[in-house]
Design goal:
Organism: Linum tenue
GO biological process, one term: protein ubiquitination
Pathway: Protein modification; protein ubiquitination
Number of helices: 23
Order of helices and strands: EEHEHHHHHHHHHHHHHHHHHHHHHH
Distance between the termini: 69 Å
EC number: 2.3.2.27
Number of strands: 3
Structural class: mainly alpha
Largest sheet: 3 strands, antiparallel
Radius of gyration: 25 Å
Keywords: Repeat, Transferase, Ubl conjugation pathway
Length: about 425
């Protein structure tokens, strides 16, 4: 049961810290915090290795069922299920079979869209088998896409739109045919200046107070940006890039930031998108994410990848080199996140200091003890690519990697010409 109205008060510890819904399958992490199984699984599957509530690094990604809490929730649900003021929640609390779901899907075009979609959403959240069943149901994904495209604001209330988005996101992976999903959702330019359905954009920008709907919308947008043409069409939808960039902030919900970064990495590949992100101050936003001491490792890695992409254009490199705080943040993340992140960080520094020979960037590297980190990298089991770029960086700083780690004077370092 997930409703919370004037007559029923939901105990706060029954709610998942991620979804804020009453937990259906509570499980506990090694930190002791309990989440709904589907929510925490999605968080961990996204590459995160921290507890969302505490931001502690997890010793293990395994979780155990919280049987006591599950019994308490079931007891509480049974008592409230018979409340005459809450008949709809009683109906939704009972599990639906695939046969019943097929009947609900057939009725979804009627007046009870919100109730029908709520039942389908609950069915989808129960298991991957249920999501596969929906994804393979003939015409189901096309029907959801049609809901988002063809019905305007007066036909769909915000809860209906958000439910449609969440259900579509939950089955998109099992559906698997992202070319077909792109065909269903991208609007031809001759029909609209915006390639994305307005309802999908509205959920992404506004959504409810819960972040799940916005995350689902961002993931759907990323899933249909599968080639150069679709990436450009998505990126040039009205206000999309601005909103995505503004969502990159340490105080924003961590799973939302993670989803936004993944989406931006994908749609930033076309050359003409990168300068737009520079003008929207994406580099400054990424600096703040990289500076945050609580940023999850997976999120920091994605922030570095997006920074590498944005700074690969001339405008982006100029912006990066002029932002010493961002260069210093990149240096500090080298060797601290992952091997992949280290390679991206070194690539950014190598491009700024070696290829572009920017003195301001070099000074920032020196101030943040970057040369020591580069020397340590040379002594580690780094990849050949990282070792080669590190050698180039040491060469331009005229540092002997074998002997001058202790005697190097950072005050007299300057980039030297070839």
């Amino acid at each position: 049961m997930v409703r919370d109205d004037l007559y029923i008060t939901v105990p706060s510890f029954f709610r998942c810290p991620i979804s804020l819904d009453v937990m259906k399958s509570p499980v506990s992490l090694s930190t002791g915090v309990t989440y709904d199984r589907s929510s925490i699984q999605r968080w961990l599957d996204s590459g995160n290795n921290t507890c969302p509530a505490t931001m502690q690094v997890l010793d293990t990604k395994e979780f155990v069922p919280n049987a006591n809490l599950h019994r308490l929730i079931q007891t509480w649900s049974s008592q409230n299920r018979h409340n005459p003021l809450d008949d709809s929640s009683a109906e939704s609390a009972s599990p639906l079979s695939p046969d019943k779901i097929q009947l609900v899907v057939k009725e979804i075009g009627g007046e009870e869209k919100e109730s029908d979609l709520s039942k389908i959403a609950s069915f989808a959240e129960e298991s991957s088998e249920n999501r596969m069943f929906l994804a393979k149901m003939d015409g189901f994904v096309a029907m959801l896409a049609a809901l988002l495209i063809h019905l305007d604001d007066k036909d769909l209330s915000p809860p209906v739109v958000e439910l449609a988005v969440r259900v579509l996101d939950s089955v998109s992976t099992e559906f698997g045919d992202f070319h077909e999903l792109r065909r269903l959702l991208l609007i031809p330019k001759e029909k609209s200046p915006n390639s994305l359905p307005p309802s999908l954009l509205r959920v992404m920008k506004q959504g409810s107070s819960r972040p799940e709907s916005r995350i689902a919308a961002v993931r759907i947008i990323q899933s249909i940006a599968i080639d150069a043409e679709s990436k450009l069409a998505v990126a040039e939808s009205d206000g999309l890039l601005l909103h995505l960039v503004n969502s990159i902030a340490p105080r924003t919900d961590p799973p939302l930031v993670d989803a936004v970064l993944s989406c931006l990495i994908s749609i930033s590949m076309p050359k003409r998108v990168k300068p737009q992100l520079v003008r929207l101050r994406a580099i400054g936003k990424l600096r703040e994410v990289l500076r945050s001491p609580s940023v999850p490792a997976a999120t920091a890695e994605k922030a570095l990848k997006l920074l590498e992409s944005v700074s690969s254009c001339r405008e982006g490199m100029a912006e990066l080199c002029g932002d010493s705080g961002c260069v210093e943040a990149v240096v500090r993340k080298a060797m601290k996140v992952s091997d992949a992140a280290t390679e991206v960080a070194v690539t950014i520094l190598w491009t700024a200091c070696y290829l572009f020979r920017d003195q301001k960037a070099a000074d920032a590297v020196v101030r943040s003890n970057g040369l020591t980190r580069i020397l340590l990298l040379m002594q580690s089991n780094c990849s050949p690519a990282v070792r080669g770029m590190s050698t180039d960086l040491l060469r331009i700083f005229r540092v002997n990697s074998k002997s001058c780690l202790s005697s190097y004077d950072t005050k007299t370092t300057h980039i030297m010409p070839f």
